UniProtKB/TrEMBL annotation:
EC assignment: 2.7.7.7
Annotated protein name in UniProt: DNA polymerase III subunit delta'
Taxonomy, superkingdom: Bacteria
Complexes and interactors: DNA polymerase III contains a core (composed of alpha, epsilon and theta chains) that associates with a tau subunit. This core dimerizes to form the POLIII' complex. PolIII' associates with the gamma complex (composed of gamma, delta, delta', psi and chi chains) and with the beta chain to form the complete DNA polymerase III complex.
Gene from which the chain derives: holB
């Protein structure tokens, strides 16, 4: 677990509880995306199933560890690996439940990992709940959610709940710096904030050309304002509309923040001069109205399948660039 040092305490805590026979069989974990929660659960599961485990490490050589490495362990049910749908249906849940009532194939524990129980159907919730009321012996459930308020109370009441917070900004930036030495502190913290303080997503963002694409977009806005160079629309329509929507929304939020409290928690920290320019030529109400229109745009797209999405996006962009004019 040294790969993600901010979750080492949770790793030790869960292992200690298992070693002391005090680990609750149903563990509900609330965490954001991109902080290593899945890796935490995988590492703990591999340790539990290992035949020659040490205090906090697995042997990585026994049959159980090798099966786990090949993602073929018969007593580990990783539902995140087998679903491509937008929801977990009852047939999948029933299949898992039927299997866990059978004898463990490796003679040890059986572990079930649902990586996102927010996408359970009502029928799936009911089927799982019946099993959670009287779980099979030597069986552990790891249930993960990114929004615990959406989980039904009956499941929460039968679980031990772990809240795993995002690491502190300083911890994340130091971790990012270890793997991204060519980037400045400002760039690292910008990438982190744009990715909602997820160090893992920020690291990917810095290394898959997305950060460079975002910089090209920001530079095009700067040139549009300063030199009236009209390459902005060309660049916008090269990119995915969902990405542009995210960049514009975050930029608008930062401009509003700047007008209210200057640089406090601005996401685009490397674009303060651009933010300041746009803030100076617009009122709070104009900026807020623009942000609301982007929120409404996202809601319209998610609720309707018959509209011309490209046309609405073009209208949104043409309306938005009005706030860039001096």
């Amino acid at each position: 677990m040294n790969k993600y040092p901010w979750i080492i305490n949770q790793y030790h805590d869960l292992i200690n509880k298992y070693s002391n026979s005090t680990l609750h069989p149903i563990i509900l974990i609330q965490s954001s995306l991109g902080i290593g929660t899945s890796q935490l659960i995988l590492n703990i599961s591999k340790w539990i199933l290992c035949f020659h485990k040490k205090k906090y490490s697995n042997c990585n050589n026994c049959q159980s560890c090798l099966l786990f490495n090949y993602k073929n362990h018969p007593d580990f049910y990783n539902i995140s690996n087998v679903i491509n749908n937008k929801y977990i249906g009852i047939n999948l849940v029933r299949n898992v439940i039927n299997n866990i009532y059978k004898t463990s194939q490796q003679g040890g524990a059986k572990i079930i990992y649902f990586s996102n129980i927010n996408i359970f159907t009502a029928e799936s919730n009911n089927a799982l709940l019946k099993t959670l009321e009287e779980p099979p012996k030597n069986t552990i459930f790891f249930l993960r959610t990114t929004n615990i308020t959406q989980i039904i109370n009956t499941i929460k009441s039968r679980s031990t709940i772990y809240y795993i917070s995002n690491p502190k900004e300083k911890v994340s930036v130091n971790w990012l710096k270890t793997f991204n030495k060519n980037y400045s502190y400002i760039h690292l913290i910008t990438a982190l904030r744009i990715n909602n303080y997820s160090p893992i997503l920020a690291h990917k963002f810095l290394n898959n050309n997305e950060f460079d694409k975002r910089n090209i977009f920001m530079n095009a806005i700067q040139k549009y304002i300063t030199y009236k160079e009209n390459v902005l629309l060309t660049i916008i329509f090269k990119y995915d509309s969902s990405i542009i929507t995210k960049y514009i929304s975050y930029l608008l939020l930062d401009i509003i923040k700047y007008r209210i409290c200057r640089k406090y928690k601005i996401k685009n920290l490397d674009q303060v001069q651009l933010i300041k320019k746009i803030a100076c030529i617009n009122t709070n109400q104009t900026l807020i109205n623009s942000l609301i229109s982007w929120i409404q745009y996202v809601q319209i797209l998610s609720s309707s399948y018959t509209i011309d999405k490209k046309l609405i996006f073009i209208e949104q962009i043409l309306s938005w660039i009005k706030i860039l004019r001096i």
